[in-house]
Amino acid sequence: MKKSIKGRLLTLIALLVIAIFFLLPSTSIYSKLPAWWGDVFPSKGVSLGLDLKGGMHLVLEVEVEKAVDNAIERMASTLKGALERKEVEGLSIKVTDRLIYLSFPSDKTEVVKETLDEEFPNLVTEEESGGEKVLAFREAEKNRILTTSTLQALETIRNRVDEFGVAEPLIQKQGDKQILVQLPGIDDPERAMELIGKTALLEFKLLNENSPLLRDFPGRIEEGKEQEFLDLFKDRLDENDEILFERMTNTETGEVTKSPHIVTKTAALAGDLLSDARVSIGEFNAPYVSITFDNEGATLFEQITQKNVQRRLAIVLDGNIYSSPRIQEKISGGRAQISGTFTHQEASDLAIILRAGALPAPVKVLQNVTVGPSLGSDSIRKGWISGFISMLLVIAFMVIYYRFSGLLAVTAMAINIILLVGALATLNATLTLPGIAGIILSIGMAVDANVLILERIREELRAGRPVRMAIDAGYEKAFTSIFDSNVTTLITAIALITFGTGPIRGFAVTLGLGIAINLFTALVATKVVYDYLNGRKRLETLSI
């Protein structure tokens, strides 16, 4: 029996020591510890959530209908490249109202049909005659794009945030088309918003330098006058071309102007074939983004540059030209660069979003709230005050009403708190206001469990049983009530963790952990102390 008591005591002490080790990084004491401590012992504790630490709260809506438009544009570009590789000359491809209008020499009809059947099973022919076809997405493919675009956007945003380096972000789907993004501790909300919300659709488009319209183009226009310029020339523009603008900054005066260019509507190459994007430093210490294509992209880029030597290739991001270098020779190796009037941070952010990939569709900001750290500090302070006052009241009641046994129950409550916060630190959990509410509720249930045990012990003592037998019987009779009430609440907490989101989940995590630990402290921790006292000296009376 003594060995059993000693083993349980050592287990309890070991759990407390482990919990304190994991808890230390969350306290002010950690900063005073030697530098080697973090290399040997845990260095991450409990992280504070958005409502405590401050940061950004965003609700984004994915414009899923535009995902279909973007997908059909990319499909048309891919189709053109596939047919050109099979030496189908005289091609004409344009996209209107989610339909691909394909024109080709009639003697290549069989080649086009084989290509569509083998490589483009998601396209269906709506109309055809001679050397013309009208293609569209199959209904199943269109529905798939609509349903998966939000999940793709969520994954892309998560990758961008991970690259950005935000600790403990919350990124999750909300409804059919919405994404909730919470970034605790963010100190540059404008930069984060630009990084998250940018579609980042990268395309390579050939300039049409033979268009007669260019004779009427000015070299520069004022920033903000783009739509007026487009309205002036849109009726005279060839249906296969479009006008895009390149941003130009005067390095001496800082004046920003826009240079108009005519480019082909269909992209020669899309950015979804990128494998890497990195910031590099070029001439005059100017940063640029070095990009690397995957194997398929490298092959296509080599073919494009080989066929279009001495033509200019515009590098287009979200409809804006970043640069338009002239192709001097065939470029092998699948490497290119995006240069412009970047700061190092702008180049770094561009590399991040290119590595993370383009969003499948634009996102619209429905809610953008910046929570200041002062609000979080105030919440923490009030949380501590309310928790401290409630604990003092509970301690006073337990000690006055149950005397020594009440003090023992209060000790178990303190052990419960240490083990609970230590468990949260072990999981690197994020603590929020609802989480604090869950902790306080679990503490209340811990006290309730001890009250049940003490009342059963009192009943046994009134019935005339010896102290040791009264204690054993009290724990035995209270076990069923404690176990049933805690397990039913634990099942509720598990359901909230599984199906809940955001604050509800934070509450459920702390409540669930608190209940599990409460079962241990109520039924094991206090019992081992009674057994230890009885083992040292047979108790004739019990202060209860």
Defining traits:
alpha+beta, Multidrug efflux transporter AcrB transmembrane fold, 3 domains, 20 strands, 20% strand, Gyrase A, domain 2, 544 residues, 14 helices, 7-stranded mixed beta sheet
Strand order of the largest sheet: 10-12-11-17-16-9-13
Could you give the count of β-strands? 20
Instruction: Examine the coordinates and then state which fold CATH places here, giving the name of the CATH topology of the largest domain.
Output: Gyrase A, domain 2
N-to-C CA distance: 25 Å
Beta percentage is 15-25%
- By DSSP (H or I, 4+ residues per run), the number of helices equals 14
Helix residue percentage? 40-55%
CATH class of the largest domain: Alpha Beta
Verbal overview:
Helices cover 52% and strands 20% of the residues. The protein starts with a helix and ends in an 8-residue tail after the last helix. The strands form five sheets. It has a seven-stranded mixed beta sheet, with helices on both faces. It has a four-stranded antiparallel beta sheet with strand order 7-8-2-19. The protein is elongated and about 110 Å long. The longest helix is centred in the last third of the chain and has 54 residues, at 373-426. With 544 residues, it is α+β, with helices and mostly antiparallel strands. A hairpin with a 5-residue loop joins strand 14 (274-281) and strand 15 (287-293). The protein is built from 14 helices and 20 strands. The chain has helices at 2-23, 37-40, 50-53, 64-85, 109-119, 139-164, 189-197, 226-233, 295-307, 344-356, 373-426, 433-462, 467-499, 502-536, and strands at 47-48, 55-62, 92-96, 99-103, 123-129, 132-137, 170-174, 178-184, 202-206, 221-222, 241-249, 256-264, 269-270, 274-281, 287-293, 313-317, 320-323, 335-338, 363-371, 430-431. The protein folds into three domains: 2-54 and 373-536, Multidrug efflux transporter AcrB transmembrane domain (Multidrug efflux transporter AcrB transmembrane fold, Up-down Bundle), CATH 1.20.1640.10; 57-64 and 141-369, Gyrase A, domain 2, CATH 3.30.1360; 76-137, Gyrase A, domain 2, CATH 3.30.1360.
